[in-house]
Design a protein that fits this description.
Elements: E1 4-5, E2 26-34, H1 40-47, E3 53-58, E4 77-90, E5 93-99, H2 110-114, E6 119-124, H3 133-141, E7 146-151, H4 161-168, E8 176-179, H5 184-210
Helix pairs in contact: 1-5
């Protein structure tokens, strides 16, 4: 397995302002999950201010009977451990992004990657929407707030957010947003929406606990 830092167009961004009081800085952990080929590695790479860490291996003939590539036949590589990136949303708020592997046989890594996470992004591909069920169930069972981000692949049939919510049988209020995982601004909007939603959920739970 090879660990590599991928080239990233955003790695040359100037460093965050170090003159601010570090006591006011906040770092939050976000998990990026979803089915095989949904765009997790692409999203992390697109938004990261640093060169993202990727653990990708080339798909081989040995995996043809294990990995379901229907709908993503052009995919040549797969994450076998994790993706990692970092983005400073604004002064004082940094997000650490941990992308999960998509294949079933690597799910044993999810518990470790999700430890201490504020929230999660579940990337959805409408061509293989059923691949989202496991991730949705995982975060619902662990009461980790999450946003479903529908990655709008070129040529894929378009669905409204409420149709995706209904198809996935999401709990009422769980946000569904449309995005392009390749686009930095689109990915950043997803992350901001995720942090905002997680903040509301954690506040509501805290209030419930003191009533």
């Amino acid at each position: 397995m090879s660990f590599e830092y991928a080239e990233n167009a955003h790695s040359t961004h100037s460093a965050p302002n170090t003159d601010r009081d570090d006591d006011t800085a906040m770092a939050l952990k976000i998990v990026v999950a979803g089915g095989f080929g949904a765009g997790k590695t692409t999203l992390v790479g697109a938004v990261s201010d640093i060169r993202p860490l990727r653990t990708e291996e080339t798909l081989s003939e040995a995996g043809q009977g294990v990995d379901d590539t229907a709908g993503v036949a052009r995919k040549a590589t797969s994450t076998v451990a994790m993706d990692f990136g970092r983005i400073t949303v604004h002064a004082g708020l940094t997000l650490y992004l941990f992308g999960t592997p998509g294949q079933d046989r690597f799910w044993f890594l999810w518990d470790e990657l999700s430890e201490g996470a504020l929230a999660a992004v579940v990337l959805a591909d409408t061509r293989r929407l059923e691949d989202c069920f496991a991730a949705v169930d995982y975060f619902e069972r662990r009461r980790i707030p999450f946003v479903v981000a529908v990655n709008c692949f070129p040529g894929a049939r378009a669905y409204a957010a409420h149709d995706v919510s209904h198809a996935l049988d999401l709990d009422r209020g769980t946000p569904v947003v449309l995005c392009d995982a390749r686009d930095r601004d689109s990915g950043k909007d997803v992350l901001i929406r995720t942090v905002e939603y997680a903040g509301r959920m954690h506040t509501a739970r805290l209030l419930d606990s003191v009533r």
